[in-house]
Write a structure and sequence with these properties.
Length: about 350
């Protein structure tokens, strides 16, 4: 096969640059000493020949690849898609590729319930088989982190954390964001404020619930268990839960939806009952999905930056890979309350 008909090898680059194979390898990888003049000559030769490093061969030699595993809950959700985008771009800038998968949302186990621990470990085993350098995960339990770290793979938990001492974490200030949202409604005169939430087992749900209660306590308002409503895992589940809530004789005047999917369900429920927003019902969300600024009125929400979460997770993962023995680190990013038209002064329910 002629050189023009095959993929250039490192030996071809070495010959073209007039350097040894080992010197060429050091010049291209950036490891070990090579004089600036020789490094420049090697890289020019590689570019001229169209040489592309063989990541698989390098992975076999180093027992890892220049690939990061990214396991998220549901790429159909704008939040996780943006998180993956941030991680992908940050990895690319550092010379890494992303091996991305999701667990299919809350339907992977075929029962309409949440993703299971087995689902996550099955995906983790795929990452192990690909010799990824490390893994970023939005976990549903401590199992996947334990599974990976026991096999000496660096892990960063993102969005939520199970507090593993062997994994770093990147999250947002959920409690502060929820407290700010609830305080905003209280400031508008609302006294019966419902929290619609999908779960209280993960740190996201626990912290948002804690922030909601903290704002009520700070205002001297009672905490009513009947105003904390389990929504289910998708927009239709949330719609049904909010429909039932809003048809009570003592219905709330405001609804705080704990994520963007729940907010969609709450919006649909209000529309189905013909309630004017915000005249008869104020609505505030957590997350800022594109639809929230497209409806009328647009939805007030606590915005977090999932793109920045992905970027920060990659940065922390690569720091962990470089220094495996350093202390566990948790990065907490802030949130922003975005005021739009879906919240207004409380109206007494007749």
């Amino acid at each position: 096969m002629s050189p023009a008909a095959r993929r250039p090898t490192i030996s071809d680059v070495a010959q073209a640059a007039g350097a040894s194979r080992s010197t060429t390898s050091r010049a291209l990888s950036g490891t070990g000493y090579v004089s600036p003049e020789v490094r420049n000559r090697v890289r020019k030769a590689a570019k001229r020949l169209g040489y592309i490093p063989d990541a698989m061969a390098r992975g076999l030699k180093q027992r890892t690849s220049a690939t990061i595993g990214l396991l998220v809950s549901d790429l159909r959700n704008h939040f996780y898609a943006q998180l993956a985008s941030g991680a992908s771009q940050a990895a690319k800038q550092r010379g890494f590729a992303i091996l991305l998968t999701d667990t299919g949302g809350h339907r992977l186990n075929g029962a309409g319930g949440p993703t299971t621990q087995t689902d996550e470990t099955d995906v983790a085993d795929i990452f192990l088989g690909q010799r990824v350098a490390g893994v970023i995960v939005t976990p549903v339990s401590a199992t996947v982190t334990k599974h990976l770290t026991e096999r000496q793979v660096a892990v960063v938990e993102v969005d939520r954390t199970f507090g593993s001492k062997s994994a770093d974490a990147v999250t947002v200030s959920n409690a502060d964001g929820a407290a700010e949202a609830t305080a905003h409604l209280i400031g508008l005169g609302h006294r019966r404020i419902a929290l619609i939430i999908d779960e209280l087992d993960w740190t996201t749900g626990q912290q948002r619930h804690a922030g909601y209660e903290a704002a009520l306590r700070s205002a001297g308002l009672p905490i009513s268990d009947d105003l904390v409503v389990a929504s289910g895992w998708d927009a239709d589940d949330a719609r049904r839960a909010v429909l039932e809530l809003l048809q009570r004789p003592d219905r709330p005047t405001a609804v705080f939806a704990a994520n963007n999917v729940i907010a969609e369900g709450a919006w649909r429920a209000g529309a189905e009952l013909g309630l004017a927003i915000p005249g008869e019902l104020s609505l505030i969300g957590f997350d800022d999905a594109p639809w929230m600024s497209m409806v009328s009125p647009p939805v007030t929400t606590v915005a977090q930056n999932p793109y920045a979460l992905g970027e920060a997770a990659v940065g922390q993962l690569l720091e962990r890979i470089a220094d495996p023995e350093s202390a566990r680190r948790q990065i907490i990013l802030g949130t922003e309350l975005i005021l739009r038209g879906s919240t207004g002064p409380a109206k007494t329910v007749e």
